[in-house]
Amino acid sequence: MLAVNFIAVLAVTFFIAVTTQRICGDYRAREFLDAVHALPGGEPWHIVIVSAALYLALAFTIVVQERYYTGQTKKLYISLAAEFALSALIAVLLNFNYNGVFLLVFTGVIYYAKGTKGKYLLICLALFCFLLTDSKLVSLSYPLYSINDYFSYYDASMQQYLVGGYSLLSSLNIILFIIYCILMIQQQQGTIDEVNMLYEEIRKTNEDLKNANNQLEEYAKITERMGEVRERNRIAREIHDTLGHTLTGISVGVDACIATVELSPSDAKEHLKRISEVARNGLLDVRRSINELKPDSLERLSLESSITKMITDMRSITDMEIFFDCRIPRLKFDEDEESAIYRVIQESLTNAMRHGKASRVRIVMERVEDTVVLTIQDNGIGCAEIKNGFGTKHIMERIGMLNGTVEFRSENGFSVIARIPIRWGEEYD
């Protein structure tokens, strides 16, 4: 539309200037003046230059508006006002013989002002300006020269071409404007369709979210029940490890006292004192296990000291020889890792006494890359078939929670081999 309107403006002004020059050259000015109602308000070629300059300023304003003012309401209104003013000046210079430039401004109003508050006012203003600058309407109040008067200067055949070209430019401008409006309507319709599609997608997403929320609620209930079951199993495991270990030691110690009470009452009395101390410590450990579910010795001592104390207590009430070979310079792990290592050793010693009837146990702890390998080997009677009892099951559960593995062997006694991936803490980074 910019090109069509530029051609139309130049064609009208250039045609009037050339025709005026020919009229003067043919000495037919008197005849022409008698036939027209008005003449251009200035020198024809001057009107050509000024009209072209005004149209170039209008085109520049439109380009700047498109590149820099989109979305800036204040600057957008200023540029549209400038376009209206330039279009009005061009229409006045052409003596309202062509007002198609207002359709060009109208397209900008439709496109750029569609999101502004005063868009309807701007559209009405553009329509009003287009209608108000119609030459037939203005000529009712003011005397105007008509381009048709200049067409009549030429012969009939030439007039047909001139009128046809003039009508073609005016009609082409209107057709382009109509096509632009149709494209804008289609674009708006496409936007509406996209909004409807997005709404439908959002509705489906909301339904999916509701279904997912219901599933999450069901999963939360199941997880809560599973958590309760795991917590009950953990408490049972902790009490079993603590109470079972203590009672096994007491049982073995009492059996030893029964065997020695007649032969050496003083030795039996000393033995009973040690059993009493172990029982009291075991009772405290059980109470602590119920309250916090962590070995009392680990609360007060390091892991190595806690293991050494456990072994010392076991030696004091039984005749079992226990050897602890620690090949790691310093035992410093996270709390859950230390608790698992302590309980595995405790449960293994208890099983060696209770089931294996062992007289000697060897505990080896070493590091292989980022894994602690804990091996507990006794010289007991072993078993023909390894079954997952309460103790061995708890050992597997504890190691499994740390993503480790455990292996039981019944060769020359009974062996527990646990491999625990260790995070190693700050000192082993």
Describe the structure.
With 429 residues, the protein is an alpha+beta fold. It contains 14 helices and 5 strands. The chain has a 5-stranded mixed sheet with strand order 1-2-3-5-4, with helices on one face. A hairpin with a 2-residue loop joins β2 and β3. The longest helix is centred in the middle third of the chain and has 105 residues. It starts with a helix and ends in an 8-residue tail after the last strand.
Give a brief rundown of this model:
With 429 residues, the protein is of the alpha+beta class. It has helices at 2-25, 29-35, 44-68, 73-93, 101-112, 119-132, 135-138, 147-151, 156-260, 265-291, 296-300, 303-317, 335-354, 390-401, and strands spanning 321-326, 360-368, 371-378, 405-409, 414-421. The chain folds into two domains: 2-153, no CATH class; 224-428, Heat Shock Protein 90 (2-Layer Sandwich).
